[in-house]
Amino acid sequence: MNFGRLLTAMVTPFDQYGGLDEDALEPLVEHLIATGTEGLVVAGTTGESPTLKAEEKLFLFKRVKEIAGSRTSVIAGVGTNDTSYSKELTEKAAKTGIDGVMAVTPYYNKPNQEGMYHHFQTIANASSLPVMIYNIPGRCIVNLQADTLIQLSKLPTVTSVKEASGDLEQISYIIEESPEDFYVYSGDDSMTLPIMSVGGHGVVSVAAHMVGKEMAAIIKEFTSGNVAAASNKHRKLLPKMKACFIAPSPAPVKAVLAQAGILSNYTRPPILPLNETERKQLEQWFSLA
Fold it and tell me: Where are the residues marked Part of a proton relay during catalysis as a site (predicted)?
C-alpha cells in the first residue's frame, strides 16, 4: 500500500493534568491535512508512545481515523520490545479502522537479526494490514541490517520502511534489492532529499507540523524533475528541520503548535516542555511571541 509521500509522525495532545486532550485532536489533524500531510503516524516516538497506555493508543487510532476519514492514511504505532505484546496490540489496532501499522525495532533488549526477523514476522502475521518497519539505531541501539529487511520486504503485508539509520549505502542497497512496490521513507527530515535521490519514496516527518507546505513543495519539485529547485528549498529549510530537535522531541514542536493555538505545550515526563532558554533558541526560526 502507498501511504503517500509526506507522512507526519503526529504529536499526542495532553492536558495540564497529563491526560489526553481529546478536544485538540481535531484541530491538529485538520491542520496537518491542510498543510500537505498525506498520512498520519499515530502513537510513534513523536507521539510519546512510551508514555501511552494501550487503551490510550487504541482510542487515538480510532479517533484520528474518524477525523481523517478517507482524506489521509492513518498508521498506528504498535511496536514495542515485547513481541507478544506488539502482536496483541496489532490485533486490537486492526479493529479500529486504521490503514496500516508501524513497528519499531525492539529496543533495550538488543536482539540479533534472527530475533528481529521473528519479531516483525509475528507482527506482520497478526493482521492483514500493511506494515511499516521503523529502523532507528540511534534510539534502539540495534540496526536492522539490509539483508534482514530485504527478507522481511518479501512478506505479503510488509510494504514499507521508515529508515533513520542515516546510512545511504545501506538504504540504497535496500531500495535496489527489495520488491518494486516496497516503499522506503526517510525517518529524518534532513535526509528526505538525499534518500529520495537514491530511490526513496518520501518522508515520515516531524517538521511537517510546522512546515508541511514547504516539505510538500520539496517533494513536488523533486518528483517533477526540478532537482535544482528541490535542492535549493531543502537547503533553505534545513535550519527549521534541525530546530525541531533543539530539545527532546516533541517539546519544540508542541511549543510552536501551542503558539499557533492548535494544542497546548504539555508533554509527559520524562519529556518536559521547553524552558525559557530553549524557547529563545527556537525563536530564531519560529515566532513564539
Answer: 45, 108
